[in-house]
Amino acid sequence: xxxxxxxxxxxxxxxxxxxxxxxxxxxxxxxxxxxxxxxxxxxxxxxxxxxxxxxxxxxxxxxxxxxxxxxxxxxxxxxxxxxxxxxxxxxxxxxxxxxxxxxxxxxxxxxxxxxxxxxxxxxxxxxxxxxxxxxxxxxxxxxxxxxxxxxxxxxxxxxxxxxxxxxxxxxxxxxxxxxxxxxxxxxxxxxxxxxxxxxxxxxxxxxxxxxxxxxxxxxxxxxxxxxxxxxxxxxxxxxxxxxxxxxxxxxxxxxxxxxxxxxxxxxxxxxxxxxxxxxxxxxxxxxxxxxxxxxxxxxxxxxxxxxxxxxxxxxxxxxxxxxxxxxxxxxxxxxxxxxxxxxxxxxxxxxxxxxxxxxxxxxxxxxxxxxxxxxxxxxxxxxxxxxxxxxxxxxxxxxxxxxxxxxxxxxxxxxxxxxxxxxxxxxxxxxxxxxxxxxxxxxxxxxxxxxxxxxxxxxxxxxxxxxxxxxxxxxxxxxxxxxxxxxxxxxxxxxxxxxxxxxxxxxxxxxxxxxxxxxxxxxxxxxxxxxxxxxxxxxxxxxxxxxxxxxxxxxxxxxxxxxxxxxxxxxxxxxxxxxxxxxxxxxxxxxxxxxxxxxxxxxxxxxxxxxxxxxxxxxxxxxxxxxxxxxxxxxxxxxxxxxxxxxxxxxxxxxxxxxxxxxxxxxxxxxxxxxxxxxxxxxxxxxxxxxxxxxxxxxxxxxxxxxxxxxxxxxxxxxxxxxxxxxxxxxxxxxxxxxxxxxxxxxxxxxxxxxxxxxxxxxxxxxxxxxxxxxxxxxxxxxxxxxxxxxxxxxxxxxxxxxxxxxxxxxxxxxxxxxxxxxxxxxxxxxxxxxxxxxxxxxxxxxxxxxxxxxxxxxxxxxxxxxxxxxxxxxx
Amino acid sequence: xxxxxxxxxxxxxxxxxxxxxxxxxxxxxxxxxxxxxxxxxxxxxxxxxxxxxxxxxxxxxxxxxxxxxxxxxxxxxxxxxxxxxxxxxxxxxxxxxxxxxxxxxxxxxxxxxxxxxxxxxxxxxxxxxxxxxxxxxxxxxxxxxxxxxxxxxxxxxxxxxxxxxxxxxxxxxxxxxxxxxxxxxxxxxxxxxxxxxxxxxxxxxxxxxxxxxxxxxxxxxxxxxxxxxxxxxxxxxxxxxxxxxxxxxxxxxxxxxxxxxxxxxxxxxxxxxxxxxxxxxxxxxxxxxxxxxxxxxxxxxxxxxxxxxxxxxxxxxxxxxxxxxxxxxxxxxxxxxxxxxxxxxxxxxxxxxxxxxxxxxxxxxx
Lengths: 876, 366
Known about the structure:
Chain A has about 900 residues and is of the alpha+beta class. Chain A has helices at about 35-50, 60-65, 120-125, 130-135, 150-155, 170-180, 190-205, 210-280, 285-310, 315-325, 335-355, 360-375, 380-410, 415-445, 450-475, 485-510, 520-550, 550-565, 580-620, 630-665, 670-675, 685-760, 765-780, 810-830, 845-860; strands at about 1-10, 15-20, 25-30, 75-80, 85-95, 100-105, 110, 135-140, 785-790, 795-800, 800-805, 835-840, 865-870. In chain A, β1 and β2 (about 15-20) form a beta hairpin.
């Protein structure tokens, strides 16, 4: 197979570039950065497309790496020849693999060809892209190589028939993955993880083994409690039966006791009744009749009480006899007494009136003394007093009138001397009055001072009169008087006249009544005279009345009437106290009447009592009783006895009835035959036992419930334990399966590796031969110290030991890689040889080896088409 | 009179051997529900008595739900008498702490106990077997031949006595005792056989299958007794809510999972598995070592078609070493490498070869 030409439309930095390829070596020497590696990558991409779309880095992601700088779709065409045919590959790369376009045409006819698919590289070279890169394509600084599955498969020429060697790595990886997944020695291995789980479950299951023992123990306890419960149930039943029996026996005994009690009660009542009956001496009196008699006894008692109440004493009898004489003709009527008492009162009144109307000697004397003053009086005291009062009024008003007059005069030009005279007058008047008063006091107080008193009075009067007259004697001052002045002057003059006249008249009146005039005592004297006038009038009237009275005659008439009345009953009023006498008579009459009534009442009560007692006595005798003194009590006792008897009779009847009813309601024969079972426990004991059993049973029931609950819980635990035990078994089973699988997978992997090694071992000798040939070609040195193992791995003898080529210099490593690649290609492509694409592979070689390398390429060009890129003319 | 004979209900069984937690709970409820349905069936069909020949419960300490449901059913159906003979699984706490046992619940103990039905014309006898009474029960059973005698026992049938085994029922010793119907429990498969010239013995089987060892129809026996003539008829009433199937599928010669699924589909169809069934597919036969087989895929494919599915792979690998002896490929070399290793057993060689070839072929290694 060989490349004919290619056209790069867009690919990396290369745009619209075409190149034709020749047979043998096609050398392209361009400077660094020209795009040699891009052309090499383009050829590879034409056969294999792009890989590493999912890689982010530009280096790993070819699509990104070779996307044209200017953007847009990229790709190109490649013409190649295989066998006798030429094909044209066209690829357009887009954003992702699924959108890439691939087309294959027959270059001769330009018709689309279906002979190869878009995996044309793998289909032609029977090698994947990775293997292609490691053999046919020798990129710069990637001379070192290692066989892949495809390489190995290709080496073994196995790809054509089964392709299975290609899958070794995948198969080994799959088995390794399973081993890792299962690995008991890795923490992530399922066997290892399960071991932990199994240990955990083992522990749980081991710890839980006691659950069944606990269940067994609690079941035993439960059984014990159930047995105890059943036993208690039986005990309760048995005790219940005994209790019923004892109860019945107790009930029978109680009934018998009751029967006995009823019989005893009936007997006792009968005896009591008989004893009661024996208390009656004869026939049983009728209770109602007895009650009636008892009631009548009350009447009898009341009669006897009345007898006592009305009983007449001896003194009363004597008094009654005496009064009987007084009132032999009967007692006066009450109206008579009333009349007589009125008369007696009238008599007293008349006597008193008569006495008051009679003048006493002193009154007569007084009347005689007053009569001369008032007998012929012309003017009565009231008129005189009035007159005197008027005179005093006027006199009292004079000083002010005079002052007014003086003031009027002054207003008219009054004389000074007049005013001087007027200023001395009041003082002199006062002195005069004082002298009169002292003189009169001396006259009245002591006869020894009489003369001195008179002298004082006389001097006083002289002073007063002197002043009075002196002033009068002064000549009036002639002036021109006003009407007002004149009227006032006239008024004063009238008053002065009136006063003088009144003084005269009063003095005359006083004199008529034997009184002397004293201006300053006139008022009190007039009052005395007024009192005397009243006394005179009264005495005068009394004297007239006594002279005109008829009371004495009336008085005598009444006295006679009263004397006649009293005399009719042997009473004589010696001192005229008729009222007392009448009342005494009246009392006697009343006493007589009362005593007479009392005696009658007593006699009536005595009769009544006796009648009743006789009847009672007869009644008692009827029933063989001897009447006692206290019949009432006797009858009450009989009544009470009857009541007691009746009560006892009723009690007897009730007791008998109760007994009859009991006997009717009960089987008496059973009671008569009752035999007490002494062996039966006491009912109280049985009740206590039953109570205890019930408590025990309740306790047992609670225990049963508790145990059941515990067992339920334990059963749940046991179920869980069983679940885990089953799970443990499952885990163990699964563990066993996986352990076996682990063992088998390990063995399978081991055997698979052995198989692969066996296959590859068959081709290691030819590869070593080719390798040695090429190595000698480049280095002119024998490759005797090189080895290739079954894995196509090259080692070199160094210091007595096979060492990996990694320890060699970079140049040697490249050299060995180029030789090995070529040897591998020789072994792999024995029919269709691919073009070898070399991208400056000798950069690490020294000049001598570079020359040899170039010779090596020329030699290879005999067998392979070679596309050789370099940037150095030295390696051209 | 009509009677139901059932046994081995195993109520409160955890059901978690095959089923996941939620489904196990659901199945547990279904089993309890089937018991209730059976009682309702009895009430609707004029059944006078239900004989429960042991293992009504699965565990010694039953849940409150199971206990209360059963008691409620019994009390609610006072017209039906429940004869309950406890088996080796039965609960200790079913009636524990119960003040008064329901009147229509009749129990048995370690001594022969009998009850009368149909005015005394039918006698129901029972005894709970234990290591203490197992030797004496046969001689102490004295039946009145003029009655229709039903005897209830729970244990494993045997034709002869077995020493020290409490739950063994010696059928031979029960012959000619006057038994008309021997109502047995313990064996979960329905079985009816002649006991002697007069009687029949019957295992009612379990009411619901719980595991794949209890496949097929499950239910109870319905007896119709003419108490006057002493004759009776019986029939098995399939009553389980779900049925279990174990379907063997021979996949010999299949090269792919698809081929195996096709064969399984046909076998499931032949077995008549319904969508509510619990199915176990067992792959059998020889498969080529290079065949493609994905059991997980197979299970997933049928998982939605049934209530429960599990796939057992009991296939063996077939390998012809000569096919690889001249094969110059990696595969040929690999097989030769394994086959030539005498330290590996033949069976292991098959597995190792299979793993290696699966890895080379890029398949899942299983």
